[in-house]
From TrEMBL:
Coiled coil: none annotated. InterPro entries: DUF1304. Keywords: Membrane, Transmembrane, Transmembrane helix. The chain crosses the membrane at residues 56-73, 78-96, 102-120. The keyword Transmembrane applies. This is Integral membrane protein.
Length: 121
């Protein structure tokens, strides 16, 4: 895999590990409140915490898939392209159903990465 898409893919993976960290381990923190636009009372609800931890796990799967594809898969381009495409789809869905900022914060880096994967194939 070429260097530019590789670096961008790693950045997208790191972003999703950070989201995992917020959703699974820092659910009620000030950073999580700011990132998700939700108040501490809401985030303290046990049901919300369960949902957030589940989402965090999925973000971890995306990040791990990207890194596995980038560094260990025999067809790294195909694997990374698949997982980055999953991030794009999730960001578009999140932007349409939850908050437009998701499209900007998660979608734009993934879309740029996807474009570079195609250009530098």
């Amino acid at each position: 895999m070429q260097m530019i898409p590789l670096v961008l893919a790693v950045i997208v993976a790191l972003e999703h590990y950070y989201i995992l960290y917020l959703e699974m381990f820092q659910t009620t923190s000030t950073k999580a409140q700011q990132a998700f636009g939700l108040d501490k009372e809401f985030l303290s609800d046990e049901r919300v915490q369960t949902l957030f931890k589940n989402q965090g796990l999925y973000n971890g799967f995306l990040a791990t898939g990207i890194l596995w594809g980038a560094f260990f898969a025999s067809n790294s381009w195909a694997v990374v392209t698949f997982f980055i495409s999953c991030v794009v789809v999730a960001a578009v869905y999140g932007g349409l159903t939850s908050s437009k900022s998701i499209l900007l914060k998660q979608g734009v880096p993934a879309i740029i990465t996807l474009v570079t994967l195609i250009i530098f194939r």
